[in-house]
Amino acid sequence: MRSKFWFLVGESLKKKIKNKWFLVANVVLLLLLVGIFNADKIVAYFGGDFQNTKEIIVMDTTEKSFPIFKEKLELANTSFDFGFSLSITSTMDSIDTLKEEIKGTDKILIFIEPSISYLKASVVSDAYLDTSLYQLIVQSLNATKMEVAINSTDIDIEEYHHITSNIEVERILLDNEKTSEEEISKTVLSVVFPTLILPFFILVVFLVQMIGTEINEEKSSRSMEIIISSVSPKTHFFSKVAAGNIFVLFQAFLLLVYALIAFIVRIVLGGGNFSFASSSGIGDFFSTLMNRGILDKLYYFVPIALILFVLSFLAYSLLAGILASMTVSMEDFNQIQAPIMFICMTGYYLSIMSSMFSGSIFIRVLSYLPFLSCLLSPALLLTGQITIVDSLISIGLLLLLNYFFVQRGLKVYKIGILNYSTDKMWQKIIRAVKNGKE
After folding, report:
1. Confidence label for 278 from pLDDT (cuts 50, 70 and 90)
2. What is d(CA 161, CA 115) in angstroms, rounded to the nearest whole number?
3. What distance in Å separates the CA atoms of residue 111 and residue 131, rounded to the nearest whole number?
4. Could you tell me whether strands 108-115 and 118-125 are parallel, antiparallel, or unpaired per DSSP bridges?
């Protein structure tokens, strides 16, 4: 039985990998990733320009920090090529006047004043700031503080500790409806979404289509009767699920390889300059995680996310196989595929908009639901909107769903795999579920 199982798995994998569309899709994915990583280079080559100007107004009550800060900020921006130019001016207008000036604009006000640790600063804006720009400002303020301290005192041990401590930066948002916590969540989700959620979503779509299409082809060509005469429906069912999941994991590995190739191409095009990380939003990923204390969560986030992904792959593949067993044509398959894709798309868009529901019971409850939890729960856990207990509930519900699919779904599969009735699709499924309970 085991040899038949692995024979079917091997044949299914060979069929998928040797398919010309597999080659075409992977070539497209490789070119797409290389293009995304090098978008600014490509646009610049054809005469485009990614540069935009960030206007920064500095109010320096220390009367000695502004020239140093301006120098540090411009030098850092030039060295790391953050993808924008800076307009830095000094003013001594009142703080209230300056706040009114920047309200409703993209201007940024930096208020520098003396402190027991030499300097402290406030960064004021009307809207959220790009992560890369905010980190650049904070790093430049720290460098300014260090130089001011060194120039103004003879350093002893205590003074050295004051100098090396990070500058006190107060984040002020003039819009009362916006919070710094939400800004952090948006920052993290802007990284989680492209690097985690989107690839997983694509792989789920691949998985559902592959398993469903393969079973449907075997039924429509009548080869299913020959296969089932040699192996049990149970062996056939689990071989399809195993082959599908192995394939998507292989595809995930290929995506990582393509990302590495795109990374290398970027380095080559940039002459060995790693500045692409900042302009593309990848480089500030780790600095953001460190500064927000999110790296401290990775020791429990990574295993929870991996478990959710694996269990969700299994749930989607089991559901696709069970429903595909009832189809006799591609039209039938499209009918059963549509609701699965709708569920997946719902989770996809909810993960994007989850920061809009911050703190609500609604988004927490949705993160428990199987098929949605794989997309929602990791992002919400990383941003602190749900707890480890909530994620464990999501895992528990996924385990129960998979157990139900194995126990009940296998009975439906056995009924449907040789059912060539042309009755309405959902009526056949309902009858098979009822018969499977008997």
Report:
1. very low
2. 14
3. 19
4. antiparallel
3-state secondary structure of 274: coil
What pLDDT is recorded for position 151?
Answer: 79
Phi, psi values for residue 135, rounded to 5°: -65, -40
Contact by Cβ (8 Å): 198, 372? no
Name, in order, each residue with C-beta under 8 angstroms of 245's C-beta and a sequence gap of 6 or more: 207, 313, 314, 317
Give the angle subtended at the CA of 44 by the CAs of 43 and 48, to the nearest 5°. 70
d(CA 314, CA 308): 10
Contacts 24+ apart (CB under 8 A), 65-69: 65/112, 65/119, 65/144, 65/148, 66/90, 66/112, 68/144, 68/147, 68/148, 69/110, 69/112, 69/140, 69/141, 69/144
Name which of 103-117, 239-253, 354-368 the model is least confident about: 354-368
Q: What is the pLDDT of residue 398?
A: 94
Q: 386 is written with which tokens?
A: 């749900």
CB 315 within 8 A of CB 370: yes
Residue in this structure with the two tokens 């199987």, named with its chain if needed: 370
N- to C-terminal Cα separation, the chain: 27
3-state DSSP percent of the chain in helix, strand and coil, to 5: 70, 10, 20
Which DSSP category does 86 fall into?
E
Distance in angstroms (rounded) separating the CA atoms of residues 396 and 392: 6
- Is pLDDT above 70 for 432? no
Query: From start to end of 162-321, where are the E strands?
Result: 168-173
For residue 240, what are its two tokens? 């399809």
pLDDT band at 112 (very low <50, low <70, confident <90, very high): very high
Instruction: Give the separation between CA 328 and CA 417, rounded to whole angstroms.
Output: 9
Residue-wise pLDDT for 380-411, tens only, equals 887 778 889 999 999 999 999 999 988 888 88
Mode of pairing for the β-strands spanning 53-60 and 85-90: parallel
Average pLDDT score, the chain: 79
